Amino acid sequence: MKLRLIAVVAAVLLCTACISPGTPAKKSETLFPLTIEESDHLEGYRKATREIVIDDFTNSEEVLRYTNPYTQAYEGYRVLRLFGLHKTLSLPAQYEFVRALYSALPIHLTVGAPLRNIIIPSWFSNGEPLILHITQAFTANQDPVVLALANTAGGIRRHGYPVIKRLEPAVDYPRFINTGDGYAIRGNEQYATVIFPDGRVSASGAIGHLLPPFEDIEGSRAIINISDAYLRDENIENDEDVFEPLRAIANDETEEPILRIHAQLQLFMYYLFQGDVKSAQRIADTVQVFMLEQGGDFTESGTDELVLNDLPAILKIARALDAGDDSLR
Predict the structure, then answer these.
(1) Of 157, 187, 255, 305, which residue has the fewest beta carbons closer than 10 angstroms?
(2) Domains in the chain: how many in total?
(3) Do 212 and 165 fall within a single domain?
């Protein structure tokens, strides 16, 4: 499913130019100046001392859209990792972050209407807050999309969050602006996550009917990589196709240990997306024991962090979202 956004017929999305590391950030708000209310919000964000602040603008009486707790936990944790928040936020704050990204989304979708801001005070090296502005739009297929507009400079996926944190914010206050004949986006980084009709969320952009069959794929690494697209596309019926190829790699004693581990990580995702948390937990426990038994160094690839830290956190967040349990808050 393509993530090309169409806000309304003939609407134009104007994005500020991406900023490369080392280039001074352009923070001019002269074209679309902040309202008094937005300025007040920003001032409050700069003074905040909590590890995370959620500033909600939604109508509490509005009917909410169902979003799958298991895919929420997985996709939300990917965003946490993108900004390095999986290392700095407590587990309750991580839960609050993921919940604010995808939960409590209104069924009635107004393109560009502000839903909430997620604020991480003093995230930037200069003390400025990280702001993720949550709003909604549509895909080309008219599926609803959650849009997170960040105030960071562009290129965080390419350069990593340690580099981006050292720059100034690209904009003071990210937001969707109705210019009268279209929409302008104030925010360099954008994260679009489709909400499928069954409530699953996915930021992969994979199209199920265009994926190659596994019998045409050569090599364990290629199989592992393509399984991600199978699991995160719009077609839930093809998820079963990943199970046997991944299990074969995971159980192959002649295979490289790191590939066997990565195959198990994908099986974890498979079970999680099925809502089979018990089996996902079993895989998480099994892969941890297997990795520790190898005695190798998996730090360079980041695999040790995925196995030892991320899987347990994702499971805890998923369970809390599923139960509507705010005990992690």
Answers:
(1) 157
(2) 2
(3) no
